[in-house]
Amino acid sequence: MNAPIPAPRSSQPTPAAPAGIADAPPKSPCVDICRMDAERKLCIGCQRTLDEIGGWSGFSDERKRQVLAAVAERRAAGE
User: Which residue in 30, 15, 22, 13 sits closest to 62, CA to CA?
Assistant: First the structure.
């Protein structure tokens, strides 16, 4: 009787997200509260600029992640 041979363990760390999740296209931060704050020049719902909102569908995944990082910083700063 032949027992199955276990696969060798990888020396690489376990990924933070399941396969495919990290590579998924970033989702829009839009929350359907679309109103611009004229003073800050940001949407009060998603905290994006008009350029970021208008360009979202044409942005690369990398650029979308940059926008999401900027949105997170704005929210953390209380903007």
Answer: 22
Instruction: Give backbone dihedrals phi and psi of 37, rounded to 5 degrees, phi first.
Output: -90, 110
Q: What is the pLDDT of residues 13-40, one digit of tens each?
A: 444 555 555 678 999 999 999 999 999 9
Q: What is the pLDDT of residues 46-78, one digit of tens each?
A: 999 999 999 999 999 999 999 999 999 999 998
b/e per residue 55-66 (b: at least 16 CB within 10 A): ebeeeeeeebee
Both tokens of 26, joined, read: 């970033």
What SS3 class is residue 10? coil
Note whether 49 and 41 are within 8 A (CB).
yes
Residue listed under structure tokens 């800050």? 40
- Which of 63, 62, 39 has the alpha carbon at shortest distance from 51? 63
